[in-house]
């Protein structure tokens, strides 16, 4: 059931609230040093004007509540409970509670989502036309907060090409957006901007990072009054930093938020601890947190990802790759302690980061824009309480081209966080990813066309209607010469569907007026209906005294008109019955039983309702194992028969107890002999302590710290109140590893250039991550557990192996000496360096050795080879030293020797010019007929038909030869030609496949005619090329006898005869 308040109850509630405020004023002096602690916000998604509950500790009469950069209207306060109305200007951010009495602030574990109650889903028609407001040159980033406290969100823009920043003071009314603008000088260009209250006065400051390569952040201390925005600028230098993204969060839980600044020039993040003590915000010297394996940090998000109530830091390699870096927060109050960054790589080129809970598991997922992939990656949070930050496999969701900035907001009002993505691509679009998740995370992509490329975006209500609009930076397109530098706004024109609270059906008794409420929207009008007939009530609520079916119509200044679902209310007379009184049990100890009771009146039924879904029927009722999440308002619904007679409430507090943390355990593993000092935070002189190891008390361990020296699970119990049982911290598991024992095996002597193997025989503790560091004594090292074989030169060396545990100090070292003798250097000799066709070479060694192993597999001293290639031999001597050598032999074919002559037939006594090619040296025979038998082109004198031969070596040293016949004209051609008398042109072999005439090639003036037995001409060819294969006219001729005639130029038959063709 929901909250039902009658008039009497409202009056009692206000009196009780006034009494509590007076009590707060009386005891304020005892609480000034304590920062508020926010443990739960319920609900964490609500519409403007809705009352929500904030549970925590150390609230007082001065406590105010901010929804990001906007103040909420506090309805009531106790030390552990605040009820506050959601402002229309609530931004997607953590809810903060600030005690103005000491200027300290506490933050909610999760961001708050403004959700106005619209229909699920979005189209382009749900948004109005883009409106632009001028900034200065190089507009880059913006932040949105209510700086002057007038209930409307103002805007500050950073200008990267101008020494000013831009302020847009919001003067909008519902449905009409307007601003007044100023551009104060700041003395430098600026890049990114973030807003948040830094000095605890309830007014948000703005922090800008210096542009270009500057190392400053500019803090704009807020001096504004309603309708007048005013800042005092204070610059802070961060040495060695090129400042970029800025986050604001209280890392050490002291109630003062730190500045966390990314560095776009180096691999680190800088933290500026807040030292403000009222007035102007001040910060300690920046502390740099290095990022191992990083390049430059860009995007940054700071939130509690491992649900231990401490904000952690996540950053990314900016526009380099897909690496994400995580640092867990181990701080205690006032003590900054952040773990070393560790990383994962999700691929792509990352630009910026954001976080939101998409699957309602109360853990924040991580989002990253992937600049070159045109998408965002969403990683589900898999961390557990206090664990290392871990995320599941990323889901990619497409965007418009070149995504950059991103933000979260519920644009369609369905209580699901949507994603906005600014893009720098040529398509000029702004991507809305509408969350339609149901179980698994999923989105519907909507690209809104815009006028300019855009870089950064926010989802905030601008005109005060309680619906988040889209605010973004339209930036200069330097690549295409298109200036912009405008702060642009797209108004959310989606309609609000009214929701009646409480939902029906219900039955109430006469005299117990039931108040029905709906969303309160500025500028809207309301019409209530009963059974379809209008009622005179025009407020966002109605008090029901008559039975019927009720609806309400919400009209947004004529632009939207939506009707709620109907609820049924029955009003009936209960008879005359008394009113029970709820008994106050007082504050309840954590872990004990809450007893709820009221005076008993016969005939009544008692139904109880409370936080965390508590419900029970009866009187009395109990809630065992009471925890802080069970604090809050409990309702007693008193029924007479079936009708609700009245509802009473009581606020149940816990006996005040802080959140206790164990500090000092920055690493769960240590070395034996070391100690880890565990400390409890916070501490008090009134507390008593007992330390436990493995759930057993440690004798004498009763102080606020304990020095652990052995492995086990440690925790502490704290007696914080004499009337309550002790509370225990979360356990911390410590492991103390024994010192590693370094040992390895290896030879005491070896030969130069020979592989030497060292075998690791070290002993390390199970579960420890060991690191092995080898020093081979010759200037080379290795980090392998079992290094590859090592090769030494001649000499003496000391080999060292050091073994340690990664992240710990304990280590052990062992050494061994090795003497390296000179290695063997065999030399292979060959009878020739060149293998010509048909030749072989003998390979021999210049020295004798104990053993031989040739690459051919032979083990003799000499080998004979006849193939080209590289041949190697490994030899060893009597001491075991080895050596090897190789030789490469080349193989070449016989040279192609060609002889030509200017004439093949001459008269006796005439000369012929011969010429040979293909050789380097020449030797002709018969030499007596030549003018010079050692040249390539001798002149021959012919007396009779003579065959001239030439031989020699080519450039490779291989021998070649050839011959040519020069005919004397006293010889008949017919006597020189020698035709074959048969041939066999079978295709299965290549023997005698064509008809040959020896020496016919030397007589090109001669032709051949072939006929069959009937005189049919089968072939005529001049010159004849020795290529007849027994075919005519494309057909194979049968076996048989055929006839040839050879004629030369004078048409005389020089030779004729028969040919036998065999198949």
From TrEMBL:
Keywords of this entry: Signal
Signal sequence, renumbered to the chain: none
Record InterPro entries: FG-GAP (IPR013517), Ig-like_dom_sf (IPR036179), Ig-like_fold (IPR013783), Ig_E-set (IPR014756), Integrin_alpha_N (IPR028994), IPT_dom (IPR002909), PKD/Chitinase_dom (IPR022409), PKD_dom (IPR000601)
Protein name listed in UniProt: VCBS repeat-containing protein
Keyword NAD carried by entry: no
Coiled coil: none
Gene3D superfamilies in alphabetical order: Immunoglobulins (2.60.40.10), Integrin alpha, N-terminal (2.130.10.130)
Record flagged with keyword Signal: yes
Record domain PKD: where: 739-803
Taxonomic placement: Bacteria, Pseudomonadati, Bacteroidota, Cytophagia, Cytophagales
SUPFAM superfamilies given in the database record: E set domains (SSF81296), Immunoglobulin (SSF48726), Integrin alpha N-terminal domain (SSF69318), PKD domain (SSF49299)
């Amino acid at each position: 059931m929901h909250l039902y308040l009658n008039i009497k109850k409202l009056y009692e509630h206000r009196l009780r609230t006034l009494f509590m405020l007076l009590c707060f004023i009386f005891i304020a002096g005892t609480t000034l040093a304590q920062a508020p602690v926010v443990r739960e916000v319920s609900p964490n998604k609500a519409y403007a004007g809705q009352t929500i509950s904030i549970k925590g500790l150390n609230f007082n009469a001065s406590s105010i509540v901010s929804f990001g950069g906007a103040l909420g209207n506090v309805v009531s306060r106790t030390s552990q409970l605040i009820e506050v109305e959601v402002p229309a200007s609530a931004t997607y951010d953590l809810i903060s509670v600030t005690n103005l009495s000491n200027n300290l602030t506490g933050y909610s574990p999760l961001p708050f989502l403004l959700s106005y109650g619209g229909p699920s889903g979005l189209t382009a028609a749900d948004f109005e036309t883009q409106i632009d407001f001028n900034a200065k040159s190089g507009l880059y980033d913006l932040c949105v907060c209510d700086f002057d406290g007038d209930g409307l969100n103002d805007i500050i823009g950073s200008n990267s090409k101008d020494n000013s920043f831009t302020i847009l003071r919001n003067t909008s009314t519902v449905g009409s957006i307007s601003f007044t603008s100023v551009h104060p000088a700041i003395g430098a260009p600026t890049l990114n901007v973030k807003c948040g209250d830094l000095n605890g006065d309830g007014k948000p400051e703005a922090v800008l990072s210096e542009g270009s390569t500057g190392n400053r952040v500019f803090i704009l201390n807020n001096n504004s009054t309603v309708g007048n925005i005013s800042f005092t600028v204070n610059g802070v230098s961060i040495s060695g930093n090129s400042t970029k993204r800025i986050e604001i969060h209280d890392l050490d839980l002291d109630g003062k938020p730190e500045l966390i600044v990314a560095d776009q020039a180096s691999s680190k993040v800088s933290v500026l601890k807040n030292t403000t003590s009222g007035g102007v915000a001040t910060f300690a010297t920046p502390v740099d947190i290095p990022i191992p394996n990083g390049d430059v940090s860009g995007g940054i998000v700071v939130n509690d990802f491992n649900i231990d109530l401490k904000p952690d830091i996540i950053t990314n390699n900016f526009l380099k790759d897909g690496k994400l870096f995580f640092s867990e927060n181990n701080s205690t109050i006032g003590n900054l302690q952040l773990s070393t960054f560790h990383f994962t790589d999700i691929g792509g080129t990352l630009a910026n980061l954001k976080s939101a809970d998409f699957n309602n598991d109360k853990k924040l997922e991580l989002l990253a824009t992937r600049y070159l992939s045109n998408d965002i990656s969403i990683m589900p949070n898999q961390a557990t309480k206090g664990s290392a930050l871990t995320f599941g496999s990323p889901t990619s969701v497409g965007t418009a081209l070149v995504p950059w900035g991103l933000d979260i907001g519920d644009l369609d009002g369905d209580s699901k966080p949507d994603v906005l993505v600014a893009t720098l691509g040529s398509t000029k679009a702004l991507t809305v990813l509408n969350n339609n998740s149901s179980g698994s995370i999923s989105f519907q992509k909507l690209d809104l066309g815009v006028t300019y490329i855009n870089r950064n975006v926010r989802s905030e209500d601008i005109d005060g209607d309680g619906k988040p609009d889209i605010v973004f930076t339209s930036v200069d397109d330097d690549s295409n010469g298109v200036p912009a530098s405008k702060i642009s706004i797209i108004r959310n024109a989606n309609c609000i569907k009214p929701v009646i609270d409480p939902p029906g059906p219900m039955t109430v008794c006469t005299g117990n007026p039931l108040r029905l409420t709906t969303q309160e929207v500025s500028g809207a009008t309301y019409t209530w209906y009963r059974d379809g007939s209008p009622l005179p009530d025009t407020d966002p609520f109605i008090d029901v005294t008559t039975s019927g079916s009720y609806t309400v119509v919400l009209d947004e200044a004529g632009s939207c008109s939506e009707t709620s679902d109907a609820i049924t209310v029955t009003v009936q007379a209960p008879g005359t019955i008394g009113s029970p009184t709820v008994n106050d049990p007082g504050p309840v100890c954590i872990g004990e039983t809450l007893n709820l009771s009221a005076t008993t009146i016969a005939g009544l039924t008692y139904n109880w309702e409370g936080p965390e879904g508590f419900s029970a029927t009866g009187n009395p009722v109990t809630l065992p194992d009471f925890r802080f999440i069970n604090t809050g308002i409990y309702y007693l619904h008193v029924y007479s028969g079936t009708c609700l007679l009245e509802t009473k409430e009581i606020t149940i507090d816990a006996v005040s107890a802080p959140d206790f943390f164990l500090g000092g355990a920055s690493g769960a593993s240590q070395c034996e002999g070391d100690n880890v000092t565990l400390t409890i935070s916070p501490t008090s002189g009134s507390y008593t302590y007992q330390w436990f190891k493995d759930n057993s008390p440690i004798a004498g361990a009763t102080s606020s710290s304990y020095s652990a020296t052995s492995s086990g699970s440690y925790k502490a119990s704290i007696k914080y109140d004499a009337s309550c049982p002790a509370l225990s911290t979360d356990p911390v598991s410590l492991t103390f590893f024994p010192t590693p024992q370094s040992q390895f095996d290896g030879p005491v002597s070896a030969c130069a250039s020979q592989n030497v193997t060292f075998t690791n025989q070290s002993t390390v503790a199970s579960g420890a991550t060991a690191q092995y560091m080898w020093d081979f004594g010759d200037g080379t090292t290795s980090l392998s557990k079992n290094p590859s074989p090592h090769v030494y030169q001649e000499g003496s060396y000391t080999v060292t192996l050091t073994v340690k545990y990664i992240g710990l100090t304990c280590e052990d070292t062992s050494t061994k000496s090795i003497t390296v003798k000179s290695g063997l250097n065999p030399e292979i000799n060959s009878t020739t360096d060149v293998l010509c066709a048909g030749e072989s070479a003998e390979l021999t060694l210049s020295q004798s050795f104990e053993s031989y192993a040739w690459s051919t597999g032979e083990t003799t001293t000499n080998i004979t080879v006849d193939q080209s290639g590289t041949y190697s031999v490994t030899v060893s001597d009597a001491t075991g030293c080895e050596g090897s050598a190789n030789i490469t032999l080349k193989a070449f074919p016989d040279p192609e020797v060609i002889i030509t002559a200017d004439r093949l037939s001459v008269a006796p006594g005439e000369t012929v010019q011969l010429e040979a090619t293909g050789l380097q040296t020449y030797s002709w025979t018969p030499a007596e007929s030549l003018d010079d038998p050692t040249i390539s082109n001798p002149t021959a004198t012919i007396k009779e038909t003579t065959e001239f031969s030439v031989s020699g070596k080519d450039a490779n040293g291989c021998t070649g030869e050839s011959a040519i016949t020069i005919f004397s004209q006293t010889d008949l051609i017919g006597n020189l030609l020698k035709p074959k008398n048969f041939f066999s042109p079978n295709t299965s072999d290549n023997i005698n496949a064509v008809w040959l005439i020896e020496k016919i090639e030397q007589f090109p003036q001669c032709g051949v005619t072939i006929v069959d037995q009937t005189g049919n001409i089968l072939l005529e060819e001049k010159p004849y090329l020795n290529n007849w294969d027994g075919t005519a006219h494309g057909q194979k001729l049968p076996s048989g006898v055929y006839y040839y005639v050879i004629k030369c130029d004078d048409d005389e038959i020089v030779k004729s005869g028969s040919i036998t063709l065999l198949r």
